[in-house]
Amino acid sequence: MLFAKKLRTWYLENKRDLPWRTTSNPYYIWLSEIILQQTRVAQGMPYYFKFINTFPEVQDLANASEEEVLKLWQGLGYYSRARNLQAAAKHIVNELDGNFPESYNGLLKLKGVGDYTASAVASFCYAEAVAVVDGNVYRVLSRIFGIDTPINSTEGKRQFKELAQELLDKKDPATFNQGLMEFGAIQCTPQKPLCDTCPFSAECVAYNQDRISGLPVKLKKQKVRKRHFNYIVFLSEEGETVLRQRKGRGIWEGLYEFPLVETLSEVSVENLVKEDGFEEYSMSPEADVRLFNEEPIVHKLSHQHIYTKFWVVTGSDLPENKVSVAEMEKLPVPVLIEKFIDSFGF
Q: Is residue 33 annotated as a catalytic residue, yes or no?
């Protein structure tokens, strides 16, 4: 109980003024938690406001088109979050009469909602005594209690959840959970934690045993895959181009991109035009193919690095799926494509 009291005192003195902390509306809190997965607060906050302004009620989100949702999400990455967000909204509207589940177990049934999000919404909105465990919580607890079980292992996830649940202030779980996450975000940070002003420094195992840099422990990530993308940017005299929607599972599902030829390595224009993927575009002999960027643009995702070149094609009839510049600006595209569009200046 002493842990919870210390944490509460620290939180009430140091917490940031964040918009989702001034409401108990489960829709807004759920939305903020989904946005902040894999996203820093500073990056996520503008998206939070965009979403609540565009979709002030869960019904508005449920009734929007997928393209509209993905366009609003553009730049946040991990686009499955946006698709799951809308799927959950549709379920709430169509199956639950627009009412959010009011328990941890009920929230877990929503698409895209796991232990963390269900715990957050249940404790913040309904005062249910369930502990939230996120990256910040892992770091704080592993350091203070000297736990070296890998946080991304099955055993680690169970151990940290049980410890957080044991420490939880059952009378005020919302403040405890907010406080523990906030403590990791601004006090017990990954690099250069503020140990000199830490209320737990006397009992912190990592601090007293000089193990701060070694905790928490995480199993090695899978090998990063290297891919080579060649985007074919058709350009007509009228300023039209071609965009295609990515289908199937994988990165950027549902987003739009220029026609793509993926190769095993960097290629010259002479070799590019011989690729099977390039030949399907049936360009006229007069077509001019020019490389836009000599050095590939490296776009880093969690498990793959994409080396990208853009090839601008003029003097050829455009394949199907041609769009005007005005139409292109309305379509959701990956950040990689968005940056090219901005630099190319259609």
A: yes
